[in-house]
Amino acid sequence: MNQSELFDRSKQLVPGGVHSPVRSFKGLHTTPRFMAKAKGAKIWDVDGKDYIDFCMSFGPLILGHQDPDVRNALEAQLQKGWSYGACEPYSLELAEFLLERLPHVEQIRFVNSGTEAVMTAVRLARGASGRKKIVKFNGCYHGHLDALLIKAGSGLAGTAEASSGGVPESIASDTLILELGDLEGVREVFKRYPEEIALIAVEPLPANNGLLPQTQEFLQGLRDIATEYGAFLLFDEVISGFRMAFGGMAQLTGIVPDMVCYGKIIGGGLPVGAVAASKKIMENLAPVGSVYQAGTLSANPLAMVGGLESLKKLTPSAYETLEKNTKNIVSLFEKWFREYDGGRFSHLKMISRGSLFWIHPGELPSNASQISPQLARDFKVLFEILLNKGIYLAPNAYEVGFVSLAHKEKTQEELKERLWS
Q1: How far is CA 265 from CA 201, 245, 353, 398, in A?
Q2: What is this structure's pTM?
Q3: Which CATH code for domain 3-67+315-419?
Q4: Rounded distance, CA 360 to CA 286, Å?
Q5: Which tens digit of pLDDT belongs to each residue from 391-404?
Q6: CATH number of 68-312
């Protein structure tokens, strides 16, 4: 079957033909590519066409596809078993490896996704504080749990409404929405609800609705306000954790959050999530405390050994290489933007942090309200030109690009050839 036939078949079996909406190529003039295999910095579709991959499974594959050491660890574990539903040593090895290197947390619990990690953190914050309201920022994505699948309302700062069907108004009303960078708005909301807010949830490097770096002053301000009012501060580092630095944005900013959520990289490309905090906070979780959380496949042995093998390779020199790879790739794209078709894309700008990059028309925004309305239109054209050249970006204008250790000089040379072919 070709791509179109596969997508038609998929739409008969699956809502919209996909198991996650961002894969649907919605708004684009082409159908999703069905991928058959991947290795290094490349991915191949069912027709045998290869692409230089800057989606990288939306972030987990920081080493590239099929890293041989990770593959060997997974194959060895498969010989032992892949799901026990019982205590096992593999999660202990990963937990010890992480906690020895992350001074801002003392205990960790593994779950199956970033969404599940944030869901646990929200319930934990509410249970430990006895409060129910949550502060969230417009443009930050924390998974598809009801309490955080919320957008800004049309009234006063802090008001909110559901951004998805099926989320009751009663749930949306307990989530208070503000714009990134609006520290005064955060203060006003806490003055309005001084003893009702359990949690401030933030991506310290927002990277789910464009790449929107925040100032040290703003993040420190959140820390100070949370401390003043007895609320918890959650850093959602599902994307930024282990990608910006081993300790993520908590390490780079020196700001100690009360809770951190991880995912993606810590599973080596397998389904994973984690919530981590001080022992005092974490012991509110069952079976020690009264906040219930459970998962049949939590701490799956394959994810644990794959994640540990991946993390072992993230040395200081690896981060230097990642940043160098990213800067070289961004420079190539920027040069091509200026030169392609008489400067057709010369108005496009790129922002990068660590091994992340994002493309935006004109002045780069710092919050969601500043994102250009022209973005989706420009991206639609750009994406399909690059796709035809064998360059695969995440198929959504608001998603960031991911660079891996596999995007080395040989791949950069090939990227240059494909861009100017």
Answers
A1: 21, 12, 17, 21
A2: 0.94
A3: 3.90.1150.10
A4: 44
A5: 999 999 999 999 99
A6: 3.40.640.10
